[in-house]
Design goal:
heterodimer, A: 170 residues, 0% strand, B: 496 residues, mainly alpha, globular
Chain lengths: 170, 496
Amino acid sequence: MLTVFNRVLDRLEEIIIAFLIAAATLIIFVAVVHRFASGIPFLQDFTSRINMSWAQELCIFMFVWMAKFGAAYGVRVGTHVGVDVLVKRLPERHRKVVITLGLIGGILFTGIVGSMAAMFVWNIAHTDQTSEELEWPMWIIYLCIPLGSYLMCYRFIQVTWMFLTTGEKT
Amino acid sequence: MNAAIIFTLLIVLMLTGMPVSISLGLTVLTFLFTMTHVPTTSVALKLFTGIENFNIMAIPFFILAGNFLTQGGVAKRMINFTVTLVGHFYGGLALAGVLACGLFAAISGSSVATVVAIGSIIMPAMIKAGYPKRFGAGVITTSGSLGILVPPSIVLVLYSVSTNNSVSDMFIAGIVPGAVLLVMLSLTTWWIARKNNYPRVHLFENRSFAQETGQAFWGLLVCLSMTLLPPLPVVWALQEWTGSLFFGVTLSFLVWLPIANKIAKRTTLGLAFEAASVWRAYWDSLWGLLLIAVVLGGIWSGVFTPTEAAATAAVYAFFIVVFVYKDLPLTSIRKVLIDSAATSAMLLYIITNAVLFSFLMTNENIPQAMADWLTGAGFGPLTFLAVVNILLLVAGNVMEPSSIVLVLAPILYPMAVKLGIHPIHFGVMMMVNMEVGLCHPPVGLNLYVGSGIANMGISELTIAVLPWLGTMMVFLLMVTYWPALSLWLPHLMHGV
């Protein structure tokens, strides 16, 4: 059951981040082309009917979402850079303790931030704040912080568990 | 006192080997819960708004563009081109490698990507041609670090964002120092090659050095004229008609370049020997070289913001690699996307936490207090710069460039400004420090990548890079104490 859940989660994570980076790139590219086309007299009738002013905002939202979920993916595959000069020189037994401590730090931080953000989103949800251009409710947009942080926390727990049981660190 | 606690905690956490982003975040949290009364909601808000900045979005785009370019044969074509240009000098292949690194650095934003892209092609070629492995590995590992200084550069974007400077100005400031370093690295390479009589690339039998140089130069001149001159009347006519210079340039070159490329594939316009080789290699690598014009030209002339230029570069890189050169099968695209997203997310996550960290620092007035202390203790700019250089070089021993810039720039920058050092000059100096840091152990990323490509141990490679590392140190001194080197072009272009 848990393995199926994990597999679906892994897949979902990859699809989300790949889609977000590709879509954001296309959106900004289209916005750039649109802006240039607007500068050409005989295309102006056509271009003025399309409004692309939301592109920047949407791009930022997409990338913030990508950052949060990508960071969780990064914990799983080990892209996060750290200073391992000292750790590498420690004797085997101490190294294991230090690495576990580091991983627990990760669990702690993402857990706390997730909860703080969840409370924050809860408060925003009771206001009617919307984004400037798209006029989407802000709490949905901010939802990526608790979701991403909790997912990251889950990944840190997974990695810690793996490390403690098998001794492997991704 | 508080400052001491913050820094000690940060350093201790980082030394446990946990991700830099998490160390920053935990430091901030500890501090918040124990020592200040900043409301936690404003911290939660910072987690989102910290990266809610359109300039930062250039980073994922440049990473994506870089990953497309590294996959494809753009680097190979650039190397072919540079070999025809400088191959006949002593150490020709190595010189071609340095030049190709410079060209590739001008289309990709990362040093590591540059080392991988150029190194994995030129290293085997150099060994086959009889160069000592050490020489080849040393050249490529160090020249690849040009990726940080030559725009577009991801680390430059990070510096601009964390110090509130214009990304375009920083990019323009990187051009002249980048070119100077390129020349200095080439001279070192050439000098070593001449001393040891390393092989030269002779494309044709029995040609004198003067003939080879002259022909290569002549070939380059004809290529550039063929690219630039014919569309000029059309550009002028279109500008008269539409009133938009940019439209004229874009449209006429969009039409002209494919035609010119077709023509060039059939005839060499009567060019012979080296000139003809330059001609062929140039047109073959045209689409890669054109990206330099798109990105730098676009930012320089102000038609693009750096972020737009980055997005355009990503789409363009995708297009040429997949459809024009057909180096990348459509099925690998998913992997490129995921890898780019993961790398960007890692950086964006450090940025988020670095923003929290510098929010905390400013809240506690730490940089200001340090700056006051510095001026009070009678430190002049010169001493300050020397201290900063040493600090950055030490930091370069244990951290990689993006983290160093994100952690240290917000602290050092206010002091530098207070001492009257120009923001752009300070930024360029930081970049050169990062370059040096990339090339020496224990965490020089370029060293690791280089040792992977050359199949050579880190300690041996460390000795191999020494001549070029020395050159870079000399260059660092030049950049530090000669601000005009960094400031001349931005002054000229934008009156900064």
